[in-house]
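Researcher: Let's do a round of design. I'm pasting the structure tokens now; please hold your answer until I've finished.
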């Protein structure tokens, strides 16, 4: 067994344990292997072990790997998306985590219609309120969520957030819990399920699992330091 596969299984086991501690079913939480900056050969090692979901941050790198690897990989775009890269994102990614404005949302909807695609999208939310963080402020989220729910060519599936890297665990937990509660409230208001909560990375995925995440984005603990 390769070290990458071993690390993936270690993270999965830790994720499952954290879910059980919170009395959650581990199968409710997906593990996304974040392969950004690592070569296609590293992705292939996990693919050969049965992993099919991978995350990338940059469109050029995603395009290169998608061309070199099997078609049944579910690529997630987790990095900030510039509007001029929207068409490539629609063509390549099955899930786009970083929709953070009305113009980007409407551009993706239009392009998806033109391309005959129906990608899942998540609204990126700046829960912590940090000026350096991307994402929609919580106070502006409901109108954007209502518009996303009306997009004919996009599958609006939920939300993504990032906690501050240097925050105390109790603050990280509060951020994740607040987005979970916000999601629950918007499900009621919109009358639809929003099943994806993309929360948690290598440093805080276990906290995320205990506080509502349904998808964690882990790179360093699987592939190694960048």
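Researcher: That's everything. Go ahead.
Model: Designed sequence:
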């Amino acid at each position: 067994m390769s070290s990458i596969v071993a690390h993936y299984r270690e993270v999965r086991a830790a994720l499952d344990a954290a879910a059980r501690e919170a009395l959650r079913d581990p199968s409710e939480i997906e593990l996304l292997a974040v392969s950004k900056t690592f070569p296609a050969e590293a992705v292939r090692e996990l693919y050969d072990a049965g992993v099919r979901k991978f995350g990338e941050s940059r469109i050029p790198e995603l395009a290169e790997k998608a061309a070199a690897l099997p078609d049944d990989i579910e690529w997630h775009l987790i990095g900030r998306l510039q509007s001029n890269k929207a068409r490539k994102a629609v063509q390549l990614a099955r899930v786009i985590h970083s929709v953070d404005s009305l113009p980007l949302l409407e551009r993706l909807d239009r392009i998806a219609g033109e391309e005959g695609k129906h990608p899942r999208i998540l609204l990126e939310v700046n829960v912590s309120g940090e000026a350096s963080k991307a994402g929609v402020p919580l106070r502006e989220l409901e109108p954007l969520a209502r518009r996303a729910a009306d997009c004919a060519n996009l599958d609006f599936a939920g939300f993504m957030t990032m906690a501050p890297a240097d925050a105390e665990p109790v603050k990280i937990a509060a951020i994740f819990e607040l987005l979970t509660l916000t999601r629950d409230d918007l499900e009621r208001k919109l009358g639809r399920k929003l099943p994806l909560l993309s929360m948690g990375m290598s440093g805080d995925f276990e906290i995320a699992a205990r506080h509502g995440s349904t998808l964690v984005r882990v790179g360093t603990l699987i592939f190694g330091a960048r």
